[in-house]
Design goal:
Length: 113
């Protein structure tokens, strides 16, 4: 498994957000800190994100695909929640609801290391 390092500004969930069990999420944008559009090749075989960082609804997740949409949004696919401590088990789909406009950060959460 190849994991590459990516730095981006804060990203945001598009539309109405996501619900428990969602295996894809749509972002309003997907760029690095210099404005370059990111693709799955920039992440390697897996990407790591945190939804709603620094809140009581924070959720660590992984993804395995990126799709650029015609309307300028980007969909992350193969989304799984990842435990925040050993053994870093991944569960298919999200375990929390997250509203549209929610902050999402590309992260080096515990499962990354």
């Amino acid at each position: 498994m190849t994991t590459l390092y990516v730095q981006s500004p804060t990203l945001y969930l598009a539309g109405s957000g996501v619900v428990i069990g969602a295996t894809s999420i749509t972002l309003t944008d997907l760029v690095d800190i210099y404005g370059n559009v990111l693709t799955m090749a920039d992440f390697g075989s897996i990407g790591y994100i945190t939804l709603e960082p620094d809140t009581t609804n924070s959720e660590a997740a992984t993804f395995t695909g990126v799709t650029a949409n015609a309307n300028g949004t980007y969909t992350l696919t193969g989304v799984k929640t990842i435990l925040a401590k050993s053994p870093y088990t991944q569960t298919s789909g999200l375990v929390r609801n997250h509203a549209g406009g929610t902050k999402v950060v590309i992260t080096d959460n515990t499962g990354f290391w």
